[in-house]
Each structure stands twice: as C-alpha cells, then as structure tokens.
C-alpha cells in the first residue's frame, strides 16, 4: 500500500516537502538559542511553538516518504495552528504550503 502511494507521488512534491521540512528545522535551530534569555512564561510558550514546528517538519518528511497523504499533512498543519493559537499565538503565515 505504501509503495503504491509513494510511486504515485511526483518527485517534485517529495522534494518540495523535504525543503519545507528543512525550512522549519532551520527556523527552530535559529530560535532555540534564544530560549534561555526569555522570561519563564515566554520561554515555555516559545518552546511549545518550536515543538509544534518540529512535529510539523516531521509530518512533511512522512508525506515525502509516502507514509501519509496530502490530506493528512494538511490536517496536521491545521491542528498545529490550532494548538499554537490556544497558547495565545496569532499565526502570521500558513504552516502548510498551498500548492
């Protein structure tokens, strides 16, 4: 089943998903160094947001590998946004690419 799905996924989509995952990783790597400098409450919220980005990057890798569908990737992206909004974060960008 997975092999069938993977073979149907165009190479450009796999490449794009992996680039999106790498971009999210780069954002997390750049921001994680600032955590110790933040006050406790901000540090906790910021760490939660970074964790959501890490999970979303992993979802992009799962999509690229053919383990999840585009629909599931979108569902996980929307769920990440909802969790971030619950922490008081107002999203300025969409976390899944719209193709």
What coarse outline follows from CA principal-axis ratios? Answer: elongated
Biggest sheet architecture: none
Tally of distinct domains: 1
Mean pLDDT comes to 84
Low-confidence stretches: none
- The percent range for strand residues is under 5%
Span from first to last CA? 24 Å
Q: What is the topology?
A:
Elements: H1 2-8, H2 11-32, H3 40-65, H4 70-86
Helix pairs in contact: 2-3, 3-4
Architecture overview:
The chain has helices spanning 2-8, 11-32, 40-65, 70-86. By secondary structure, it is mainly alpha-helical. It has one domain. The longest helix is centred in the middle third of the chain and has 26 residues, at 40-65. The relative contact order is 0.15.
Distinctive features:
99 residues; mainly alpha; 4 helices; elongated
TL;DR of this structure?
The chain has helices spanning 2-8, 11-32, 40-65, 70-86.
């Amino acid at each position: 089943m997975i092999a069938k799905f993977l073979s149907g996924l165009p190479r450009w989509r796999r490449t794009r998903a992996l680039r999106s995952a790498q971009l999210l990783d780069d954002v997390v790597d750049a921001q994680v160094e600032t955590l110790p400098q933040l006050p406790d409450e901000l540090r906790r919220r910021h760490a939660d947001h970074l964790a959501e980005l890490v999970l979303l990057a992993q979802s992009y890798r799962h999509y690229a590998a053919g383990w999840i569908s585009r629909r599931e990737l979108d569902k996980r992206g929307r769920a990440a946004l909802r969790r971030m909004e619950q922490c008081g974060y107002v999203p300025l960008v969409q976390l899944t690419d719209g193709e």
